[in-house]
Amino acid sequence: MKLPAPRPVNGRHLGWSANELATRPYARFWNPVMSDISPEAHRAVANSPMAEALLPSKDEAIGSIIDAEVQNGFTITSAGAIHVNLLTEMPGVTPAMIDWWFGWHSDSPERYKLWHPLAHVHAQWASQPPAASIGRARYVGFTSQVDEYLGSAMIRGAIQFRTPAEIGLVDGAVAAGSDATAVCARVGLVDAPVDLGYLAHHVAAVPGGSVMRSRFWLGKPYLAARNAPMRAVVPIAKRLIGLTELDARALLVHCSQEMTHLASFLPALHEQEA
Q1: Which of 86, 145, 204, 259 is 20 to 30 Å apart from 11, CA to CA?
Q2: Contact 223, 215 (CB under 8 A)
Q3: Vertex 27, ends 252 and 135: CA angle to 5°?
Q4: How far is CA 100 from CA 173, 225, 261, in A?
Q5: Exposure string (b/e) for 225-261, b if CB count within 10 Å is 16 or more?
Q6: What is the average pLDDT across 99-126?
Q7: CA 205 to CA 181: how far, in whole Å?
Q8: Mean pLDDT over residues 195-212, rounded?
Q9: CA-CA distance, 22 to 48, in Å (whole number)?
């Protein structure tokens, strides 16, 4: 992935310190021994990249997330994008827990590191959401600035949470907010005023838990300047063109790892902290 090198930030590190382990009230949920990715994710890695027509663009795919022909896989498009689809089963997890998690995890780096102990380094809000807000109101309209590894590459991402409707997702169950939710965001860089694409995690209740359907649309067709004239970011944008099969594979694996791991502790964490 041709990204500008992230600026090093002193004091940020993988893992938890001894002091953090001794003082954080949710320390029992720190577990750096992560489960393997799902069999479906393994097959997706083996069978991808797939034909471009099977994983269409955001505007074509956003209305059919649940019914998509391919739920697990990735493609590299002729227009210079990567599209990644992933389904994760989440036993014991409710859609409301997912909304709570996305409003909770960026309050401190330690919380963010619970999610992927081997890749997450740091998280903070660009501006702090109101402490009393709950559910989607705790994260929608706010930006989480994250440092994490995708594969062996460090990324400093600006995850700008949006309403589902803002990125084109219209779903009655999501709008009602009872048996489904959708976490949607514009994805950009922290160190440059450039947005790279979009993500959506559609979560629907099923007997015994939830199913999360994750979608990523990234690359040239989705690039845009953020709060700056486009001419100011053209040199950076040119370096961003050319996402590869390695990038798409790393993203699919990372997402499967973190969402599988999240499901392993979220019900108990929510019971303790919410």
Answers
A1: 259
A2: no
A3: 60
A4: 17, 30, 16
A5: beeeeeeebeebbeebeebeeebbbbbbbbbbbbbbb
A6: 97
A7: 9
A8: 97
A9: 43
Q: How far is CA 69 from CA 1, 55, 120, in A?
A: 27, 8, 31
Tell me, what amino acid is at 87? L
pTM of the model: 0.94
Alpha-carbon span 34 to 158, nearest angstrom: 25
Query: Average pLDDT in the 266-271 region?
Result: 98
Whether the CB-CB separation of 236 and 3 falls below 8 Å is answered with no
Output the pLDDT for position 33. 95
CB-side exposure of 262: number of CA atoms within 13 Å?
A: 30
CA separation for the pair 111, 33 (Å, rounded): 16
Please give the pLDDT value at position 158. 97
Measuring CA to CA, which residue among 119, 56, 42 is closest to residue 84?
56
The dihedral sign for the CA sequence 26, 264, 109, 144: negative
Q: How many C-beta neighbours within 10 Å does residue 137 have?
A: 14
Average pLDDT, the chain: 92
Q: Which domains does the chain have, with CATH numbers?
A: 38-62+71-273 (3.30.530.20)
Q: Which residues of 166-190 are buried (b: 16+ CB within 10 A; e: fewer)?
A: ebebebebbeeeeebbbbbbbbbbb
Taking the C-alpha atoms of residue 181 and residue 173, their distance in angstroms, rounded to an integer, is 7
